[in-house]
Design a protein that fits this description.
heterodimer; A: 475 residues; mainly alpha; two-stranded antiparallel sheet; 2 strands; 76% helix; 1% strand; globular; B: 639 residues; two-stranded antiparallel ribbon; 26 helices; 73% helix
Chain lengths: 475, 639
């Protein structure tokens, strides 16, 4: 069999990313100033972003798809890396884990996400997912001397392995049923052989739903998230709450809308209760949290529930709203974590909600930024969070899920309590002790980017929405 | 040419600059920013007027916020004849009142705040009149309401002021509730909230009915009346008029700008703007006409006996707003808007003059403690006299032309209640002349009745206050000259100008009838002035005797027909009683507490329970995951 060189253009961003990650790993040996490594990572990621638009196409016999959909997700991943690196620079010094491999691992993890977004085949999907997950496990336990960080990594890893098993189990069943792992071929086979009620198909669909629910931290497969989020280095918590979640949604959308497109009725019956549970548990348990990282972990769970509504809608508008929400969520969530990170200083953890008391008096700017992010997470106009919710809910209503949206809005109202409690602490209480802020130009830049994006998208959402609609048009 | 964008955004910029930099940097210079911005708006508004007179109208979206299916939220501007008249009224009055405030508010500790709010108000008002869709109209509508609340309660350390602010805001909720539903109904009916398609399609729904609360209701009547609810609140018509007299707690420039010239006329603007909808419903028009007529009579009678100089003018405003609705209700929208336009000048002037008097009297409001101020403050006296002549409808003055137009069209128009409201209007013209001149005579003529100390301090206001008075006075006299009727050899230019938007009202009557209507209203005006002169200049004992002889009537009027007491009895006290005993006692303690504490407690308890699920033990987590899968599979199998 003659070997035909596959078209490498569509994978060019991934290739560049691989080279970059390896280069960073090597550079760590010679470069002593870790800030330089952070800077090089950002330059490299900028390069990846640069080659991204030229990579449209399908290659490796349809195993790898580079389309508008994957491109949009990769954009979110790039953003996620850049913002994470920016907020990490000073923070990992404070945590005394200023090692070069930190950045390399972030890049490897992102490479995994990119593969997931572009996967046209269940094998590629699994490959990307494991690359992402393994790198993230290590990152979660990056503060080696800290027992909580270790615990986070351990739990994340073991449960992650558990979830991966489900994914593999589902994959093997679908392969057994259809004889292929190619998403489009699976769909074609199901339609051609009228398998829509097949119990094996249902079982494998459920297993996929479970595995992806784990990645996006949907209830009841969310148990790892609060512990992992709390224990992991804060910068990595920010990274985990956006990247793997976005990647999870990327594959969820791809697999369910393409491979299982013909059994939409069945999988939406699985996803609707999951979404409701996720919004419910996320928002309700967030109420009783005293640790801001844990609170944001539950908030992150709740947001996954909202985003699921876009998938459940199952329309192209629904998918566009998922993309929009994910992008907005990246900005507002990393922005919030950036403020959380600023409160961490030498000898002061600063992750209790009470640490925010009177912040508006001692650090008015930081408080104002947190206010914007909290408003956005609550979904108050004119911040971007409102727009994200608006489009997701709208697409779900148009698809006939009005009752689910009503529930979502009610939970959204509950969420105001714990988000605005932070605002209340900042603006209506007297400062107890002077909190030192660990600022740096890098984190300032990250905050500027996120706050401007949150306000800009809130006021002028059409740019992003149109981009997302264009991205899913070829889906 | 997008110059017109400057009209609303200059005041917005001034607001932002003042609110951000006012406290620490601008301080006593805060007025410059606001005055320059509003004056700039005025210049552009005049340019826009010139363009519009040349036949150019604009209807364009500036930017879309949300687009989803046929639901679109955007900022857009419609500039036509109606808008342009409002622009001129708003920017002119606003500019002059801004300047006047420099003197009036001099030395106030919240100086920058005052100007910031004044500019914000101007911005909202301009957004309101320039909107090309109902949502933006609503935005401006609520925006001016909010600014009104801020400014009525400007002296927030005074309880009556902050109470009045709250009252204005809450009373307006009643009207705006209907207004909001009206907009929903429009969206449901037409699938859009833009004026142009709504008005274009309105005719097609002329005979539709809709089931509303179990009754089949004529659709256009319902929409029109719901929109009118908003007007009733904002323009202080019965039965929601109670907030406006109390709103006089605000600084006088605020009363002049917001509660006389601009914001309160937004209701009339709304009816005029939605004339294509109102015109489809005879019932709605009749309601508008009767509400206006009754309110104008009702408020005028109260105005007869009040002693608070600002409240008299406030009741006069309510009464004149009623006049405008009366006009709209008989289909003479352009006459209503014409009166809105002339009224803005003479009423703003009356308020500013009252402010000038208060300035001289160290805040005294009681007419009975004034008198003989003529010689101390000649400019104020003269301008106020001219404004009163205008409102009394003395021929040649602005008020005469607009009032006459309304009365004639009411008399001759097709409305079934036309003759009735004409008769009421004529009586009100008499009453208006009487109370306006009662105010003049008691304030400026006769002997000074205040304390010696007050007399010692009497002085004319500074130039920065008197010059706006003089300029407004020009408007109070001459603004009506653009609408001199054909009968008097004029061209009725105003009506012609408005024709593309508001149509041409039809009057069916002979010239002699038109002369008759005019003569009656002139006689009513003059006899009102004459009677006031008799009572308060010549035989000052008559009003005292009259009040004693008709003490029942006097008491009724003096206490404003006990409407406040009635509401207090009917709504406020039951509300407070309910709040205290049922809401706090039962609902709060037993139900809400059960909900507010219970649900969070339940949620919190639930939260604690689910939290306990989060044991931290890995094996528990894995068990839950596995259980989850089993449940899902079971559910799928049982489906």
């Amino acid at each position: 069999m003659p070997f035909v060189m596959p078209d490498l253009r569509p994978v060019l961003p991934e290739i560049v990313m691989t080279v970059l990650a390896l280069a960073i790993l090597l550079a760590d040996l010679v470069i002593k100033r870790k800030e330089t490594i952070a800077f090089l990572s950002i330059v490299g990621v900028a390069l990846v972003t640069y080659v991204l638009p030229g990579s449209m196409g399908t290659t490796f016999n349809g195993m790898f798809l580079s389309d508008g959909y994957s491109m949009f997700f990769k954009l979110i991943f790039m953003l996620n890396v850049i913002l994470t690196v920016l907020i990490s620079v000073k923070y990992i010094v404070i945590e005394k884990v200023n090692f070069g491999e930190y950045y390399a691992l972030i890049l490897f993890s992102t490479l995994g996400m990119m593969l997931m977004a572009s996967a046209g085949d269940l094998i590629v999907l699994y490959l990307g997912l494991e690359l992402m997950a393994l790198s993230t496990y290590i990152l979660a336990g990056f503060i080696r001397y800290d027992i909580k960080s270790n615990e986070a990594a351990m739990k994340y890893f073991l449960l992650g392995a558990f979830a991966s098993a489900f994914l593999l189990y589902g994959t093997s069943m679908i392969y057994g049923l259809t004889g292929t792992t190619d998403l489009k071929a699976i769909s074609a086979y199901i339609v051609a052989n009228g398998l829509s009620g097949n119990p094996v198909l249902m079982l494998s669909m459920i297993l996929f739903a479970v595995a992806f629910s784990f990645k996006i931290a949907a209830v009841p497969f969310h148990m790892w998230a609060p512990d992992a989020y709390e224990g992991a280095p804060t910068s990595i918590t920010a990274f985990m709450s956006v990247g793997p979640k976005a990647a999870g949604f990327a594959v969820l959308g791809r697999v369910f809308l393409i491979a299982f497109g013909s059994v939409k009725l069945e999988w939406s019956a699985v996803l609707v209760p999951i979404a409701i549970l996720t919004m419910g548990v996320g928002n309700i348990v967030a109420l009783s949290q005293t640790n801001i990282k844990r609170m944001l972990a539950y908030s992150s769970i709740a947001h996954a529930g909202y985003i699921l509504l876009g998938i459940i809608a199952g329309t192209s508008d629904g998918m566009a709203s998922v993309l929009t929400y994910m992008l907005i969520y990246a900005f507002m969530n990393i922005g919030a974590f950036a403020v959380v990170i600023m409160l961490r200083s030498e000898g002061f953890k600063g992750d209790n909600i009470t640490d925010y008391e009177g912040l508006s008096k001692t650090h008015p700017l930081a408080a104002a930024l947190m206010l914007v992010f909290m408003f956005s997470l609550t979904g108050i106009p004119p911040t971007a969070g409102f727009m994200g919710k608006f489009y997701v809910f709208m697409s779900a209503i148009n698809a006939g899920y009005t009752w689910v949206v009503i529930i979502a809005v009610m939970f959204s109202a509950i969420s105001a309590y714990f988000y605005l409690r932070v605002v209340m602490y900042m603006y209506m209480k007297e400062p107890k002790e002077t909190v030192q802020l660990s600022t740096s130009p890098a984190i300032g830049l990250a905050l500027a980017i996120t706050v401007i994006a949150v306000l800009f998208i809130g006021i002028s959402p059409s740019t992003v929405v149109n981009l997302a609609r264009a991205a899913v048009s070829g889906f | 040419m997008n110059n017109y964008l400057l009209i609303p955004f200059l005041p917005l910029a001034a607001f932002l600059i003042n609110i951000l930099l006012g406290r620490n940097f601008l301080k006593e210079k805060a007025h410059w920013v606001s005055i320059l911005a509003v004056a700039g708006s005025w210049v552009v508004a005049v340019m826009t007027l010139v363009d519009t007179m040349a036949g150019k109208t604009i209807n364009q979206d500036l930017y879309s916020w949300i687009v989803s299916g046929n639901f679109k939220v955007s900022v857009g501007f419609l500039i036509d004849q109606l808008t342009v008249v409002m622009l001129i009224v708003v920017t002119t009055c606003s500019t002059l009142i801004h300047i006047y405030s420099v003197g009036y508010m001099h030395g106030d500790k919240g100086y920058y705040r005052f100007f910031a709010y004044l500019s914000l108000f101007t911005f909202c008002m301009l957004m309101l009149v320039m909107a090309n869709n109902f949502l933006q109209l609503y935005f401006g509508w609520e925006g001016v309401g909010l600014c009104s609340y801020f400014l009525i309660g400007y002296y927030f350390d005074k309880k009556s002021a902050s109470d009045a602010g709250k009252k204005a805001f809450i009373v307006n909720r009643f009207g705006d509730f209907g207004f909001g539903i009206g907009i929903f109904m429009i969206f449901l009916t037409f699938g859009t909230i833009y004026y142009e398609p709504v008005f274009a399609q309105a005719g097609g729904f002329a005979n539709n009915t809709v089931n509303f609360l179990g009754y089949d209701v004529h659709l256009m009547t319902l929409i029109a009346l719901l929109l009118f609810c908003g007007s009733v609140g904002k323009s202080a018509q019965m039965p929601l008029h109670v907030w406006l007299p109390d709103a006089m707690e605000g600084p006088t420039p605020v009363s002049a700008l917001i509660h006389a010239a601009t914001m309160v006329t937004a209701g009339v603007f709304l009816v005029a703007r939605c004339s294509p909808i109102f015109s489809l419903s005879e019932t709605a028009l009749m309601v508008v006409a009767l509400t206006g007529a009754i309110t104008s009579l009702f408020a005028a009678t109260i105005g007869l006996v009040q002693n608070d100089i600002k409240r008299i003018i406030a009741y006069s405003t309510i009464s004149q707003l009623g006049y405008m609705f009366l006009a709209c209700g008989v289909g003479a929208y352009s006459a209503g808007v014409f009166h809105l336009y002339t009224h803005a000048f003479f009423k703003a002037l009356l308020f500013l003059c009252a402010g000038s008097v208060m300035h001289a009297m160290a805040g005294e409001l009681n007419l009975q403690k004034m008198g003989g101020l003529k010689k101390y403050m000649p400019v104020t006296y003269l301008t106020m006299l001219l404004a009163s002549l205008s409102i009394a409808g003395v021929p040649g003055f602005a008020g005469f032309f607009s009032k006459d137009e309304i009365l004639w069209l009411a008399y001759s128009g097709p409305s079934p209640v036309g003759k009735l409201v004409w008769a009421i209007g004529t009586v009100v013209a008499f009453l208006t002349a009487f109370y306006s001149f009662r105010l003049i005579f008691l304030t400026f003529h006769g002997k000074f009745r205040g304390t010696h100390e007050q007399e010692h301090h009497l002085h004319e206001s500074p130039k920065v206050m008197t010059i706006p008075l003089i300029l407004l006075c020009v408007g109070a006299i001459a603004s009506g000259w653009v609408g001199i009727p054909h009968l008097l050899g004029g061209g009725a230019h105003f009506t012609e100008f408005m024709k593309p938007v508001l149509g041409h009202p039809e009057g069916h009557g002979t010239h002699s009838e038109e002369w008759m209507v005019m003569a009656v209203s002139v006689i009513a005006g003059f006899s009102g002035i004459g009677l006031a002169a008799l009572f308060y200049l010549v035989r000052t004992d008559i009003p005292v005797k009259l009040a004693a002889g008709l003490s029942g009537v006097h008491k009724l009027l003096f206490n404003k027909y006990y409407v406040d007491e009635f509401y207090s009895f009917l709504i406020v006290r039951p509300a407070i009683w309910t709040a205290k005993n049922i809401l706090i006692g039962i609902t709060d303690a037993k139900i809400i507490e059960a909900i507010v504490n219970g649900v969070p407690k339940a949620i919190g308890g639930f939260s604690q329970v689910i939290r306990k699920v989060q044991t931290g033990f890995l094996q528990h987590y894995a068990t839950i995951m596995a259980t989850g899968i089993l449940i899902i599979i079971a559910l799928m199998l049982l489906r």
